[in-house]
Structures
1.
Amino acid sequence: MRTAAVWIIIFPALVLSVPAGVQAPSGMGAVALKGATIHTAAGPPISGGVILVQDGRIRSVGQSIAIPGGAKVIDLAGKVIIPGMIDPHTHIGAFDADDVNEMPQPLGPENRAVDAIHLGVPDWQEAVAGGVTAVITGPGSGERMGGQSVMLKTFGGDLKRRILKEDGDLKMAVNARNLSHISDIYGNFVKAREYLSQWRQYQGGDRTGSPPKKDLALEALSRALRQEVPVRVHIYLVPDMLSFLEMKREFGFELQFIHSVESYKIAGQLAQNGVDCICLPLGTRYHETPDQLRGIAVLHNAGVRVALHTDHPVIHQKWQRLNAAMAIRYGLPEEAALRAVTINPAQMGGVADRIGSIEAGKDADLVVLDGPWFEPRSKVDMVFVDGVLAFDRTRAASQEGR
Amino acid sequence: MMRRHVSSSNSFRAGGSHWFLGVFLASMMLPAAGWAQSTLAFRGGTVITVTGSPIEGGVVLVRDGKIIAVGKDVSIPADAAIVETGGKFVMPGLVDAMTHFGIRPFGLNSQEQVTPENRAVEAYYPFGGFFKGKGGVEADNELLYGGVTTVYIAPGSTQLIGGQGAVVKTFGASYHGLILRDPASIDMALPPRPPREGTPPGRMAALALLRKTMIDAQEYDRRVREYNQKSDDDKKDAEKPPRDMANEALQRLLHRELPARVEADFVEDISAAMRLAEEFGFNLIVDSGIAAYQLKEVLAQKKIPVVVGKISHPFAPEYFTYPQELHSVADERNAAWLTRAGVKVAIASYASSFGGKATQGRWLLLEAALATAYGMSEEDALKAVTINAAEILGVDGRVGSLEPGKDADLIILDGPPLGLKTWVERVYIDGTLAYQRGGRN
């Protein structure tokens, strides 16, 4: 584990990347966001509601919240508020440093995205401006096992504090039906199972002999076997999905599909097996047909937990909201689409206790819009991350005519 | 008094095999003179002409494929077939001012840097799967599905001078019937990129090569003119300049019969294109123009239009292959800033078919909606995908707005044009039903 001091030494520029005029989150006075229609992603919309924010957290939310004296009141009548959006699979910050893939190395479960994360690109602030406040960013799909993704907020001065989950998954990729892909992955899970049992034997015994040699790759796979992290796999085709279902049955890991192009064809089976699907409705690179686009609603209706992703830089990080719009256009109910970019990815990342919905006790990650949250023509007016105003359109507009 | 009502059941749908079967049959059965010889009245909807104010409960009257009247109090002739549009929105078919539709990626570019003689229509084949299943028909149907009725088809942009682009419709009685204007312009691109293999020249050498090319064209033009001015007797003794396809194409630039479209994103490249245009006296259109807002005053002053890419994805090529230094220059407000400065702006898809981007034409209205989130008025955003595009392509006499005398290319929407949940219900091209929403679309 790394200490905060190490991060500060490695990334001194981070502190400078916070826009001037932003206050520190802790010790901040209470702020009341008043009058907007609030889509909490946890219950029905609240019209003319109040969100009380203090010390970076949501203190309370509802229609009749007493606003304490001394609280700064921001009048948002006519506006719409949603939770900060979350992208459960992207390569923001990893791509730009050219570290996204470690090809031709085919198997690198020990690789950690957190070791390559690059914050010195404008993509992060653009993501914030688009209302995206947290991402799971990770290895590319050039290897069968790319490594471990990191979940972090898109804004905040200190990387240590921005990290929500350091080694958040085990990222894999099968691009098409390929004889070696599945057997490579299967073989390594078998090895990891043996490795795990060696360790259990050692730890359960009198510990007189020497312990098994620590193997970073098998260590990473073991964490999936112990269900500490999910297996997240870049996958298109049904036959590959069926192979993974088989492995899930044998090894018992948590399974989440990324891209999930054909997943709608086996929606019932995926729901039954508790497999999550992460979809990319804007992914025109993959020849999304109307059927595939409607597939997201099919998955939802079958009871599959669905999230949407940009796969930045495939689709820029900032268009997560447009992803939701496209899913709605093709039949996903508005509320389900909201959950697909907020609470569902929070749950998939294992951080739903902190982010993903507007509920008392959660981080104050909020997006204020000037119209229906999903309409392309609506504008993001303000974005709060940990209660800090991270984007303000009126300030951004001052760059007009540059 | 009997009026024939067009019902949805007896009109054919542009989906799957019916589409090209329909075109095929139509091309055999229709008289050569015209292909929609009837009177149609679109009645009751909100008519967005894009050149005037929207008309609530308006009528668009169409005869023999042409619009003959638009307004609130248009008297409908007794023989007109009525299309009820109450509660719907009627607007001109969309014009996509830059695509590579119907041209296979390997047909887009030549090996050399300068090929003004190449013509996009020679490689244009929108029906890749004619009689063979779906294939290319999907691509065109894809456009109708998004309400696009006219597109510019361009050569690729990996050459300094790629060749001549054309304007085509997305539906027609015959292959030749699709072509609206050919050639429409000469396509260029800066900075130089490798056409296929090898190292491209740098900017200085590229501009020198372009200048040399234009000087050759001027020289050719002079020799041809001098020869033509000779008396018949003198011509007998003089040597006739041999025909040169490349120089003939460039002659049309020099005579301002065709504009040059230069795909240029960096300030220095847009500036270089402007210098060339001034030195050699040709009309210029800037394509893509990611940094165009930084030159908006001079573009407005020189009346140089800009055809921007998608608001969500301004990079004409893939994001991956694009110079990193442009990422921080790109701004979604480009189109709005240019428009406000007085530059004529079109928003185009830059889509190609048979490649990864074949489906992007269908998002044109959503891109226009997105433009309004970044400072454009609804009116300007709609113009950017209709009349502005038509004017830039030089086909505004035929398409781009709902006005008497223009082709009856119109789309019927089930809601406001810029709404997320709005769908194109019907597309009429030359007064003929080309697409109707239903089934798997």
2.
Amino acid sequence: MKNTLRQVFHSSKFVAGFIIFVGILLLITFYPLFHPGNPLDMIGVGTFAEPGTYVSLYDSVGTDTETLKLPDAADKRLDAVLGKEDRIKMVAWLSAMEVDIEGLDYMDTEALMDLWRANYDDSARPNGMTKAERNYYKRLNESLSSMGAGGQMKVFENDAAGEEQQIATITPEDYVNVKNVANTKTLVLGTDNFGRDVLKEMVSATRTSIMIGLIAGVVATAIGLLLGLLSGYMGGFVDDAIMFITNLFTVVPSFILLILISYSIGQEQRGASVVALVIGLTSWTWTCRSVRSQVISLRNRDHVNLSKLSGHSLARILLTDILPYIASYVVMAFILQVSSGILSEAQLSLLGLGPKTTEVPTLGLMMNWAMLYSAHLNGSWWAYFPVILMITLISFSLNLMNTGLDQVFNPTLR
Amino acid sequence: MKTEEEMNVRGQEIISEAPAAGESATVSLDRRRDVSGNPMCISGKGVTKIFGSGKKENIAVNHVDFDFHEGELVSIVGESGSGKTTLSKMLLGLLPVTEGEIYFRGEKRDISTTRKKKEYWKNIQAIFQDPFSSFNVFNKIDTVLLDCINMTGGKNLPMEKKTEMMTEACSFVNLKFAELTNKYPFELSGGQMQRLMIARVFLLKPKILLADEPTSMIDACSRATILDMLLNLRDEIGMTVIFITHDIGLAYYISDTVYIMEHGRFVEHGSADEVILTPKAEYTKRLISDVPKIHEAWDLSTVE
């Protein structure tokens, strides 16, 4: 046993997979301790807030300011305001006015602004430009020039009497220390369509998905192992009967079966564990078949014959003379079942047949939400990409462990 | 082809050759016994085994009759595929008999239920060809031997008594029990494992021992030792030994009775002297002539 473990941990593939998987387990164990709270809390009102640190504008106004005169502040401000589209439009205007724009990099704010200031004329009428377009340029120019001028802002507050009272004047050189702002929030992966913290949701979803995988794996392996052992060892009628059932399950694609069962159970009854059970009940067939074939090759071995001659019971022969010989194989089958259980849950949930959406998030449900709210169309990568990455990492690490085990155990049946 | 006379001469030569060199020279002709007066231990009438059916039908054992006496050492000799192992599996009750009856101590053998099977198995044990696959590699040697004691009703004996029995069994086969405790069977050599197998039988004391080519995977030196122990064991327990082998020379030295098997049939049987010295069947003559001899070109002309 000790020797076997040492052998297993000498396999670099197994170790790599093991480290990734343990990393994921540590993440789902410790992240919720440091960031407690319901992962399904809708903290954002809008949809799909981008990842980043959010600083309360309201609190910033009251916070003590420092005056910093930074030389490139104005340019940065322009940079932030000037979108890519605006820049392309500006270049279009310049070229329509036959200005020499040879060698101009439109992302170079300073060069672009110099040319713009020198050449923009709101009375000019470039060829083929509609009035609406000319008005757009007028507005753009106004906002650009006000930015450059760097005017002050005044902040008013409604007092008790409903009168507007000026409470602060903000100049371009006023800065607040983020530390001193009462409310800031870092959303590492932004928010999803319901305004929920994607990272927190994903950690919780990973935990649920791994649990679903484990339950499905245990159920599938237990059924497959039991039927495989009986069918392989006993042969004859028992074998025929069990293989008939197994073939029935194999011929009907298990995913179709999974969809039908999930659908007939109904949304309200489908908790995470029910889904796990359904996945387990439909995916045991290949474990059964492969365990059976291994047992058939073992059942005529001399040590099994000797055990029979010694008058040992069926259960004892199966447990002591056959099961230990296929144990490594069963562990490998179990790992693959866990991995495919997680993937099955993701597929089911993506179709909207996963666990009910009000209790716990799962990786599949998160993908389903992202798809329903077109995250992939409006560029909100953070709503689905980390989830895909997590699913990939889990099944990658499990498969890597499996390959490692395969290398250690496969050469013979030991 | 050799002439019949030449073949008979070859039979005489085998006898004149010394037994295989080894630690023990006790494998000699004087250990044969005449057991024809003993009561019948196991016998068969028209025992047949057919694998498959229809076009794929394969008759492995074809209506064989045999009578093995108590305390007899019977060799069943035949080439690969002649049905020796199938017959042995049927005798052990591991394979169902297609046709015919096996009689155990004069009565029809009944192994129709699990309970009756277990009852029958108390009387018969086996030693198989490959010692490396005969042990469950997950059980320690202690477990293997303790199991035998528990099976023969020694479950409630004190541990000291059990250890004493195991030590006795091991010393019977020249093994030291103290050195074997907490070891696994696969840590031993092939010869040691086969001896441990014999120690196991020593503890179980069955009525019948079925030895299916027990020495064919063992080197020549250990072979004589193992055979010696097998003979000692027979003398000790007084059981019937059914020795299955393809080596007719070996069968001659140790057996009281020899059965020659070809294509699922017994072509000849009788006392070892009868069969080897005055073979009647063509097949027996061929088997005898195929035994290689040192210092002489090996005539393979009879090999098909």
3.
Amino acid sequence: MTEEQIIQEILQGNGSKFKLLVEKYQNMVFRTSMGFVHNKEDAEDLTQDVFIRAFQSLKTYNGDAEFSTWLYRITVNTSINHLNKIKNRGLLHFAEDILQHIFNRASEDKNPQQQLEQSERDGAIRKAIDALPEKQRTAFVLSKYDDLTQKEIAAIMQSTEGSVEQLLQRAKSSLQKRLSPIVGK
Amino acid sequence: MKTDQYIDELINREKQTELNPYLATRIMSRIENPIQKTVSRWQTIAVAASIVFAIASGIGLGNSYTSNSDIAGGLYVNDSQIENFSLYNTDGNE
């Protein structure tokens, strides 16, 4: 069964077929969300929101772009809206990060000193990614977390390959500038 | 460069985060059973109406009060006549 057939069936009232699309694209949506929020629980919540939004607006999908491109756009918009909502949660987020990395993620072969250094470095990197302007950040996340080509990113962002290339270069140099004194020592 | 290496390392670790295996089921359940509004429209109207009624009753009761300032008389009590202080004065009773 092709994607178009599944979408047609859903639009005709067979909503349970949407599960096929969820199963196919959930990892993609989750990974992109992770790029924006860096936190499993938030990324899962965003993934749910993205699919619910996609289901509710499926009739607006006209097939001009690939379904995955359309879904990526919803993911990016939902993630950015979420980040704008929680902008003032900075300190809490930072504390969450530190705890999460100390207790859950730090690899067992590292001593406490190395674990602390890693969690501080991770925090600095996340902060630097989060501080990127919206478009640079979107291009960066799609490129690094989803391994998309500049052409694919351009289709999602409804832009040109040249401007995506520029965004990625600016994002990279901005991260270098911000992080070199901290992590590159 | 070292910075790039650290960034890629972090991104790879985040990419390896495993998704909840029941997420698809949760999504479908939310789609098939959308969360009902816990407060119905009629409940909201009833609460609003009772607040309006309470305020109106308060205003009505307040307006219905009339002061009886025209009462001419009053009770005059001369406290000094109620009890004679000399009863407690032991000097006079000895």
4.
Amino acid sequence: MAARGARPGRTLIAFFVVLAISYGLVAIGGSWKPELGLDLQGGTRITLIAKDSPTPESLTEAADIIDQRVNGSGVSEAEVTTQGNRFVVVEIPGKSRRDLVDTVKRQAQLRFRLVACSTLRPCGDSSISPGESPGGVTVPGVQNSPSPKSRAPFSTVHKNAEPSSEPGAEPSDAPSQAPAESPFGDPLTWMNNPSPAWVKAFNAFSCPSDGSLPLVDDNADKPLITCDDQGVKYLLTTAMIEGTELKRAEAVVPDQQVSWVVSLAFDRAGTKKFTEISRALFGTQDQFAVVLDGQVLSAPTMNGLITNGEAQISGEFTEASASSLATSLKFGALPIAFEKDPPVETVGPSLAGDQLRAGITAGLAGLILVMIYCLFYYRGLGVVVIVSLIVAAALTYSMVLLLSATAGFTLSLPGIAGLIVAVGITADSFIVFFERIRDEMRDGKSMRVAVESGWIRARNTCLAADTVSLLAATVLYIFAAGVVKGFAFALGLSTIIDLAVFFWFTHPMVSWLARFSFFNKGHKYSGLDAGNLGTDRVPVGGTA
Amino acid sequence: MGKFSRLGNDLYNGRRSIDFVGRKWLWYAMSAVIVLVAVAGLTVKGLNMGIEFTGGAQYRVQLNPSQVTQSTADELRRAVAGTGVENASAPVVTTAGSDAILVQTEPLDGPESAAVVDAIVATTGIDPAAQLSQSEIGASWGKEVAKRSLTGLVVFLVLVSLFIWAYFRQWKMSVAAIVALAHDVVITIGIYALSGFDVSPATVTGVLTILGFSLYDTVVVFDKVRENTRNLRETKRTYAEQANLAVNQTLVRSINTSLVALLPVGAILYVGAVQLGSGSLKDLALALFVGMAAGAYSSIFIATPLLVQLKSNENEIVLAERRAKARRRNAADAYATVPAFSEDMPMRASDDGVPDDEAPRPTVAAGRVVRADGATGRGRVAPPARGPVGLSGASGRQQPSRKTRSKRGKK
């Protein structure tokens, strides 16, 4: 409080510098119009078609998971609906992005398996020749995966031996006779002694030459023959760790590296199993494989003993593809698989074109009424209200622009209305403040004293009241979905901006104005004259 | 304006005061009637859930690319809404790709569906057999969303109660604030049901805004109540009086804030409901308008009186009340009721033969004085004596005897 004389001006300048910086950032971002929501601007519609005929429950569950994925990153207000009995329709504001389509349709079945054989590393000496006995080490009946799935009979393995060079040349769907009945036992044992039938099938298998995903049935309880995107084929054991045992998945650039990876953290059971794998593989040239939806993402060797349950999936990720994968993994696997290339089309806005214009016109008309009222009632101080509202609007607009560029924030009609409504809450701070000042002056204080003592009281009131608003916004943001989420975001944003403007603009502005005799001598139009206060005499402080 | 300002000053120093706290039963009764109407509306008429909640039917209209424009979509929307089918009164019409328009409505039965198809055919001139396909759509706001929103609501209420309790250090304020909030939300939903508007996500948004706004308003008023009642002992007034003063002092703020908040919403409501007649604009604006008005009303008329009532049997409050009462009694002018003489004074106060000088006196009956009511100190009413007034100076109890200085210390 010591240097109060110099403070208001400094705070004001700092505030305007921040405002200018925010617009500078917007200018770097380059877009001067906010992204509009589905209802105002239309967007992209992706129609996912389920592969088999799923039950309505699993379709709804899939829709929920997809909903979490597309809305998981916050505020884009995408809509997910089921349609008929095998369609899930996803509507996303804005232009279609390839990684978005991947995010929604990826089944995200993540499994960790051990590599028994691969093109680069042929099967172990003992088991490479077909026909040899599998050795007595397998423990029948031990299964590592939680629940047997009621799927179609196992169909991974090729029967036809000729290599196919066509992309997507599928392994045959017919169940192979030999491997299906063998129990697979402990994967760690099986890895070194794969059953001959599987080795045979492996040798017969060939990968599509262009690196596309071979169609395989990724069943956790069975070994898997599949490829990675380089065309390397693998014979993998039954699944050791499943995607459900993940605790966390996020896209990061690790320290001292340049490429994006997806970092994983397992839950307790997963950590235990991963430690087990790590112990067994450390120091050998044996590999394990990270398999996503039947395709090997990577097949690293254990370079160290990892016991904390943290792992990374590396590959040639871009930021977009890494975060897309992380998002898909985070919200769990879909219970059903979808057809490969879903139809993607653009949709128009769902609201009539006149709605936006009418809404904005009405909001502006209302605002002008508010301004007239403020001028009429508060006179000179009314100008402060109006300027504060304009500054708040400018700050809000820059924040909306920044957030639509960085966080995918889109303005839907409820969002816009929410921002207009926030005017009420914003203006209320000023009204509380001014009424406090007037009350203090009615108690006989001079304006300059009244501003400071009124400020202290009004500040506490506004902080408490705005905390309630912020609390509402935060809780709604965490729990609600879709449109409500975007709205909660807008509410929280405008509340914070209200506080910022109130603390760093309105108060210094009034303190500064209190130095002018127009205000502190109680000029007729200052809003602080005797008639306006309703008292008989305006208290005038010392030498103003 | 001058009058309004003068009112502001009078309200501030308590010269003029509206008895918000004292007339609580009047306000409670008023609110009870409104809430009853709202609940009746809710049970009898019920909420009309929109497509987002119920799912419904979707018509895909194949058109030439030249026809697929926003204006065709708008025309279709008007045409379908104009069929008079209730479940198709708020259709969602969007262009899809370059050669189709989608029309979505709430679930329709056979004849209703036929009416909608007729409207589509009449507007676009398509061949319904070849260019129109119908399918079912699910709800985008399914049970899961509703469940999560409810969880959020409960968490919010718990947190906000805790916050109010922590900030004001009085759990009764939390109770009063939550009751006021429930009051607002019930009224808002009830009036919404009565209006017959479709419930859309915009409505939900509006109702959720009310949560924040109503509590916000209540906190502002309660802050002043707390400030006024912090030093009850010093102010020498009762809790009820100080709370009432607080409401009066914030009244100007409440009026101003409500005006500022309601003006834009009212404008949007007018445009949405009267000029456009459809769309989510009016849903949101109606919920907000009713809710904000109710929120401003309830923090003054419901929350504060309820708070005073809740606290009325607290020890400290009762003591303060007693102190204030005693003080007022003492402050009253003992000789206030003695009429001053004036020339045109009627010589007889009444015709019943009571002598003039006895008329204003307290009636003495069986050794007991009946007290005159309303010894406020403002009117000219003498305070009644405590017991029978004897001739001696002692009023029925031991009086301190004041001796002259020269006689003090001597027996």
